[in-house]
């Protein structure tokens, strides 16, 4: 397993810089980082099933609408993990599906300190249906009614955490595709590099969580910064900004020790604010302790 860690670290070191398009955007990733890091599937010693749904720029025709299903579990005395991620991302004439299976392994570095490594593999299905666009038949650019491309991909990730701190890096989709080498302009994907960090700070009787996420491509750099307060050990309430161009509020409630639900409301600070009604995201998560050594307990990420 130490060899696997070395291989993954080398993979990060020699990965080419690149850019990409049409990646799903999430804000409720705090308890669901498996959406972009396969190492996360082994971090919490439970069976977890979660659904996330995001509608972006409500009021704009063809605005992105993303639905995701996440499932993960630990095994082998919580040293191994497995997960499944399914994304459905719609925007404009595009309707894309991603399916990935994840495998991960955890090494204990000390009391309440661990590092996890993960890989994932699956496929991407990109589809364009130009018949959904009004007057598309009048434009020679839309020379075909439909495009449909399916390609494989792989990803990798690292995740280090203690009880009150975490840092992760990942490349969810490592393989690149260039439309210049394909008969379809639809096939155009470049790598994204993700980095996440967060921690719990003492705040009297309350708990304050601060967090950040960066996404780096060949041509772009974006970030998200935010903080949340835990109220009555049951409700998280927080604020965040994305690139200082969008601002939002998020909340999460623990309905039971197994069931969690959350909601995000986000508004842009650019000229887009006059043309749409914001972005909204919701998630629901169910946890179980059914395997050997699995245990339901308070977690902050």
What class do helices, strands and sheet pairing give? mainly beta
The tally of helices reads: 1
Secondary-structure element string: HEEEEEEEEEEEEEE
Task: Extract low-pLDDT stretches.
Answer: 1-21
Radius of gyration: 20 Å
Largest sheet: 14 strands, antiparallel, barrel
Considering DSSP H and I runs of 4 or more, what fraction of the residues is helical?
under 10%
User: Overall pLDDT, averaged?
Assistant: 85
Shape: globular
Terminal Cα span: 25 Å
Strand order of the largest sheet: 1-2-3-4-5-6-7-8-9-10-11-12-13-14
Number of strands: 14
Strand fraction equals over 45%
Question: Can you offer a commentary on this structure?
Answer:
The protein has one helix at about 1-15, and strands at about 45-55, 65-75, 80-90, 95-110, 115-130, 145-160, 165-170, 195-205, 205-215, 220-230, 235-240, 245-255, 260-270, 280-290. By secondary structure, the chain is mostly beta strands. Strand 10 and strand 11 form a beta hairpin. The longest helix is centred in the N-terminal third of the chain and has 13 residues, at about 1-15. The two termini are about 25 Å apart. Mean pLDDT is about 85; it is low at about 1-20.
């Amino acid at each position: 397993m130490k060899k696997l860690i070395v291989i993954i670290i080398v993979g990060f070191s020699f990965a080419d810089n690149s850019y990409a398009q049409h990646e799903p955007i999430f804000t409720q990733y705090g308890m669901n980082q498996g959406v972009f890091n396969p190492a996360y599937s082994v971090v919490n010693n439970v069976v977890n099933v979660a659904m996330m749904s995001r509608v972006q720029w409500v009021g704009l025709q063809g605005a992105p609408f993303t639905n995701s299903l996440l499932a993960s579990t630990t095994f082998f005395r919580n040293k191994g993990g497995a997960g499944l991620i399914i994304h459905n991302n719609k925007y404009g004439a595009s309707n894309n599906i991603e399916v990935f299976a994840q495998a991960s392994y955890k090494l204990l570095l000390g009391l309440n300190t661990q590092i996890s490594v993960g890989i994932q593999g699956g496929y991407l299905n990109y589809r364009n249906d130009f018949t959904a666009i009004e007057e598309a038949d009048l434009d020679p650019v839309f020379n075909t009614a439909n495009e449909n491309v399916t390609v494989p991909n792989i990803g990798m990730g690292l995740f280090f955490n203690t009880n009150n701190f975490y840092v992760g890096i990942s490349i969810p989709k490592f393989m690149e595709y260039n439309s210049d080498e394909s008969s379809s302009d639809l096939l155009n994907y470049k790598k994204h590099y993700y980095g996440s960090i967060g921690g719990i700070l003492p705040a009297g009787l309350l708990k304050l969580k601060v967090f950040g996420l960066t996404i780096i491509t060949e041509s772009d750099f974006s970030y998200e910064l935010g903080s949340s307060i835990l109220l009555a050990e049951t409700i998280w309430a927080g604020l965040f900004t994305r690139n200082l161009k969008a601002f939002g509020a998020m909340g999460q409630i623990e309905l039971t020790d197994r069931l969690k639900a959350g909601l995000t409301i986000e508004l842009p600070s650019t000229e887009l604010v006059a043309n749409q009604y914001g972005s909204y995201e919701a998630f629901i998560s169910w946890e179980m302790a059914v395997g050997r050594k699995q245990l339901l307990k308070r977690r902050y990420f």
